[in-house]
Amino acid sequence: MMFNNEQIKDRNVNELLGLCRGITSDGTVNKEEATYLHQWISKNKAFLDDPMTNILFKRIQSMLEDNHLDEEEKEDLLKILLEYTGDNGPVENITLSTLLPFDNPPPEIIFFKKSFCFSGTFAYGPKRICADMTKRFSAEISPRLIWQTDYLVVGTVATKSWAHSNYGRKIEQALYRKERGEKIAIVSEDTWAKALTALTDSIGIPEKQTMNSKFTNKKASVAGWFKMGSQGKVKELLEDLGATTTKKVTKTADYIVVGTEGKHIDDFLTQYHDHNGTIITEDDLLKEAQNAAHTVP
To answer: Could you tell me which CATH number the domain at 219-293 has?
Structure first.
């Protein structure tokens, strides 16, 4: 039987999860078990294109550098493996604070003119709420890591299915940038939230800023599939740019923003030829947002 890369990856991840559960089943971890686990990941990591597994590998490797596993390291490794498998409690949601490579000590969080990227699920609320509160203090937000990103903020909550998801992709990218000497901080939701709370206690919560753009006071509709995510995210960006969005494409819209994933722009030009609105692409929208962000006082 032939297996594609995803099937091989899933099979290896499942095997690794089973191995971790076997090790933690008696509530302890010894040096021999840690060494075997390290060797197994080293042998199979070419098939495990999963950033969190790579982080686990590096943590074990660091513990075994002196060829010894002391009591504190045994306890830490047990916690890490329980969090990795999602077996550290009866609830569906778990925290990954022990496993994740946050900056230690946590850096000072500066909001003004700094760039933030959010990853994961947040106890504070949906990512758009976290982003909105951060933007109110003159920070910039990017849905993905860009070279200007100063802080990657990782949500407190993860689900038991995280090992089969892209949860850690941004973390892996941030670690790579750190290894290259770039200045980017990986911080927990708790660190970010404490800084936000301290700032709001000090100066209050500023009014939500609307960026000045060609969409300001205009009506905009959205159609198609987008690289940046759902149509809801596109509408949120349009509203940040001052537009009023419609529930569906309407002839009275000033702009129709189209996602061209799997569809050519000419298809939309034909479909909406009798509409009054100007048709623009997702890339055009992102360029306008970038330009508008630099004009926010």
So the answer is: 3.40.50.10190
